[in-house]
Amino acid sequence: MTEVYVEEYVVKGDSFLEVGEASTKLKGTLKMLGIPSDVTRRASVVVYEAEMNVMIHAGGGVIKASISSDSLVIEAVDHGPGIADIDLAMQEGYSTASDRIRELGFGAGMGLPNIKRNSDELDIETALGEGTTLRATLRFERG
Amino acid sequence: MTTGIKVQLSACRGCARCIKVCPTEAMRVLDGKVMIIPELCVDCGECIRKCEDRAILINEDNWRLLASQDSTLIAADPAFYVQTRGYSCPEVFSSRLKEAGLEDITPWTSLAFDVTAYAIAKEIEKRGPEGLPLISTYCPSVIRLIQINYPELVGRFVLVDSPLETAVSLWREDTGRGDDVTLIAPCPAKVALVRSPEGRPKSSMKYAVSIQNVVRDLLAGGVEVDQPVEPCGGDLRYLLWSLRGGESKHVSAFCNRPIRTISVAGLRNTMDLLRELELGRLEGVDYIECRACDLGCIGGVGNLESRFLTHLRLDHIDVEWTMTDQESEAVNRWYESEIWKLSAPLKARQRLPLDQDLGQAMVRLREMNQIYAELPHIDCGSCGRPSCKALAEDVVRGNGEATDCIFKLRERIYELAREVAELSSRSPHAFNRKR
Ligand code: SF4
Ligand code: SF4
């Protein structure tokens, strides 16, 4: 049987107070399903960073989590400005966040590297002026 | 497991106030009486604070009975020594206790806290940056909270036993005595420490009673504990553990390098902090001290005195952070003996998933979302659950009906009423027939 369970979270732009909500909700869901706690922890980080990115850089977007028998796929879709240089964005410490965001202590350039570190597969499609789709896969059994 | 709290069903009116304050949503009111889901209870005592009918109590032993024995040996939580007005020296306090026929192990308690702080400092120094921060195991309520809600963090616990346990072990080693020891505890969590300890098969103490019962009894028994006494020369470092941040200061005093610690008190702050730690956002922190109660253990529900007054007293204590050679020698010796070590690692205690089979769990989760979607989402508590989500979960777990929700019930009654009305408007066939 290949059941797939899908949950979707809407992330608003500039909503610092709500950031972390999707990650908390997903954690609850994964617990109810009995997903291994290591995956739950990694998923929390991936979704949290994705929420941050979508909120800070793209003015909002949608995060979708799909759970199947052997893996969890997290997809973050936004219609923001897109990423000009992915390789650069993947470097730790690189950030295009505005000064205001940095003053708040966010946008330290750890988002994408952190997502990469915590997922088994990462795929980013981006087009300038159109938006970004990030797809992170977390496998239940790390091979 | 809940062992520090008991419910007196005859006193419970089923008002459901307690279920709303429980930080882990461990309480329900079913058939008009409160019940606690043992796997979710962390013994923090918030429900005890809220209950106006005294239906929820600390699950303590009978102090009167214990105190009336020929000899009663007590180990007291540091918060105990700041409950009375004239306090300034545990040693003097001890002699007052003797007047009441009680013997306490104060000097060993003070030594045990030094040994504990030293052991924690060494554990921090042994770890590389990836292994840090370590988390304090002092508040048993926080231990349970992490075991249940933050299972990924259990590996961060510093495997150092409660200094109260170590105090009794030290005393036994030194004196060779085997008497039963009673803990005077500030909260249900520390009662649970005696009843079902973590990381060791059995507690070194046998009984546990609340601070408020003991102090009240001493005062009523005419023991002068409210008279001012001369300031004391002994080491009072350990008393600060009952105030948020005291443990961190003590540990820092033993560290060879400056350490970065975070101390928070109150379950809300604790949960926020653990969440950030879980997300890997607390880089560069060495040690984390969390207390379930506001201000620290002086805020425990089993204390007698106002936590603000005890805070004031603690603020005015003269504390010496440098050890004498003699003290250092004793601490070192006991550190080497490893008497402070927890014998087993602390394990996660995760909640059961909706089903062991993932596919089946998904089906039930969908069912749960469906039920939840149809509830009013106002978390009023009238169904005896802390939230509409909790009711939805209870229903799929087979522990309730959607119509436990009073709004759902009203809808159902309305539907039924409509059906009945419709039925009654239909005339029986016999009358319809033309004669
Ligand atoms: S903070 Fe202290 S008094 Fe409060 S639950 Fe924890 S150990 Fe008990
Ligand atoms: S609205 Fe209904 S389901 Fe929600 S808490 Fe109140 S009674 Fe329970």
SSE topology sketch:
The complex is a heterodimer of chains A (143) and B (435).
Chain A: E1 5-12, H1 21-33, H2 37-58, E2 60-67, E3 71-78, H3 86-89, H4 99-103, H5 111-118, E4 121-127, E5 131-139
Antiparallel strand pairs in A: 1-2, 2-3, 3-5, 4-5
Helix pairs in contact in A: 1-2, 2-5
Chain B: E1 5-7, H1 17-21, E2 27-30, E3 33-36, H2 46-50, E4 56-58, H3 63-67, E5 72-76, H4 90-99, E6 102-104, H5 106-126, E7 134-135, H6 140-149, H7 163-175, E8 181-185, H8 188-195, E9 207-210, H9 211-220, H10 246-254, E10 261-265, H11 267-278, E11 287-291, H12 307-315, H13 325-336, H14 358-374, H15 388-396, H16 406-425, H17 429-432
Parallel strand pairs in B: 5-6, 5-8, 7-11, 8-9, 10-11
Antiparallel strand pairs in B: 1-4, 2-3
Bound molecules: iron/sulfur cluster (SF4) (2 copies).
Biggest sheet features of chain A: 5 strands, antiparallel
Tell me the overall shape of chain B. Answer: globular
Question: Can you write the helix and strand succession of chain B as a string?
Answer: EHEEHEHEHEHEHHEHEHHEHEHHHHHH
The total domain count of chain A is 1
CATH superfamily of chain A: Histidine kinase-like ATPase, C-terminal domain
Q: Which compounds are bound in this model?
A: iron/sulfur cluster
Largest interface between protein chains, with number of residues from each side: A-B, 23 and 23 residues
User: Could you name the CATH topology of chain A?
Assistant: Heat Shock Protein 90
Instruction: State the end-to-end CA separation of chain B.
Output: 75 Å
Number of helical elements of chain A = 5
Q: Supply the CATH class of chain A.
A: Alpha Beta
Query: What structural class do you assign from the helix and strand content of chain B?
Result: alpha/beta
Distance between the termini of chain A: 22 Å
Give me the count of strands of chain A. Answer: 5
Task: Calculate the mean pLDDT score of chain A and round it.
Answer: 83
InterPro entries (chain A): HATPase_C_sf (IPR036890), HATPase_dom (IPR003594)
Domain Histidine kinase/HSP90-like ATPase (chain A): 42-141
Protein name (chain A): Anti-sigma regulatory factor, serine/threonine protein kinase
Pfam family, one (chain A): HATPase_c
